[in-house]
Amino acid sequence: MKKRIRGILSITLAVILMLTFSACQETKNSPQSNSKDLENPSSNIPDTDTSDTLKRTLSSGAVINADVEIPEGLGDSVSVYSANLLQLDVDNIVNIFLNDKEITDKTEAPSEEDMGDGRFLSYMTADGSTLVTNGALNANYSSAEFQSVQLDYGLEQANQANLSEDFSFKTREEAAKEVIIFLDNMGVSVHPDYKCYSLNYQYLEQNNSDQADELSKEESAGIQPEILWNEELNCYYFRFTEQINGIPVTEEFRDEKDELIPVPEITVVYSKRGIEVLEISSIYETSNPKNASILDLDTALTKLDQKFKSVIIEGSYTITKIRLEYIPIKSSDAGEYRIIPAWRFYAEHTFASADKEDPNQTITDTIKEQFLFDAVSGDEIMTGVGI
């Protein structure tokens, strides 16, 4: 949840609100037919507020015009954790998705780099559904009908107004509640702020046609089998973020060595029949919590201001989003991590540069950058995407 800002110079922090979700009943049916078996989730998922915009000009000249995401009820301290990547219950996942299906092909081999439980598993069913797991650290399921549907092609550039409708089988909110409960039962706690795109079958048909037009016949043949486009393919496309005690886990992070650190990825496609696609990987399982005081927003902004004043800046910076989140820091080569809180600042850097076609002319460029600060120590965490 996001906390409304009640002032520019200070933010009042209160007691940590633990977010809990009630578990649904265990079921061995396919998730494409089990939605009626879920308990009523209406009281299980907390509502979210819309964050206000913080406006301020720092002494360095940087402009703050940002949405601020701070968990409601956050105190002046949070836990710092040891963590490992969660090993999913593969047998349970197989039972959920393939219990009522005829398995026609099963492959088992050692996982890449002896990941997780050391097993790579691949299943294919008579109806064309597939399930793949690697080391029990990730799982990818797709029903036959959605095996070749290109869901996210051009999604970010699409007209968002056309991707927010409620379908007749369930509203977006109702579908999200059922999916969140399903994930919670898998041991995956997700933040209640999520992305949801309503993809009707006409959009999917056009989307797939547009992509096929950009590919050769040979390339498009592999992704464009005969699909019977109809209302049964209307679906909600969800992207979730893992949370730990109400604080989201980062969706993007490289360490100071520019090494890509695994970050949680959770995608679910939900239709009238239930879950059509599940893609889940790099979920963190925490242990050894240690309480630590954190910087408030004003202090974090001071750290950012000092950063800007310590370098020569060309052009101007506008901070468009501020978010308190957990980030994983690799502590050993044995798959061990520390989970620490951090302030992330999303920025737009506008500056003048020479025109490539006519060096005598200048043009104005705007690029996106990010700045990350350890919310406990106040030290900057280098990410490779800022000055």
Descriptive key words:
globular, eight-stranded mixed β-sheet, alpha+beta, 5 helices, 387 residues
Report on this structure:
The protein has 387 residues and is an alpha+beta fold. The protein folds into two domains: 35-83 and 290-381, Lipocalin; 85-286, no CATH class. The protein has helices at residues 90-98, 172-185, 201-213, 217-221, 297-309, and strands at residues 53-57, 63-69, 77-85, 103-110, 119-125, 130-134, 138-142, 195-199, 235-240, 243-244, 247-248, 265-271, 274-281, 284-293, 316-330, 337-354, 362-374, 380-381. The strands form three sheets. Strands 1, 2, 3, 14, 15, 16, 17 and 18 form an eight-stranded mixed sheet that branches. An eight-stranded antiparallel sheet has the order 4-5-6-7-13-12-9-8. The longest helix has 14 residues, at 172-185. The radius of gyration is 23 Å and the shape is globular. Mean pLDDT is 81; it is low at 1-30 and 33-50.
Task: Calculate the mean pLDDT score and round it.
Answer: 81
> Any idea how many domains?
2
* Rg calculated over all Cα atoms: 23 Å
Would you tell me the structural class of the helices and strands? alpha+beta
Low-pLDDT runs of 5+ residues are 1-30, 33-50
How many H/I helical runs? 5
Shape: globular
For the biggest sheet, the summary is: 8 strands, mixed
Total strand count, please? 18
Strand content: 25-35%
> How do the SSEs run, as a string of H and E?
EEEHEEEEHEHHEEEEEEHEEEE
State the helical fraction: 10-25%
Spatial gap, N to C terminus = 30 Å
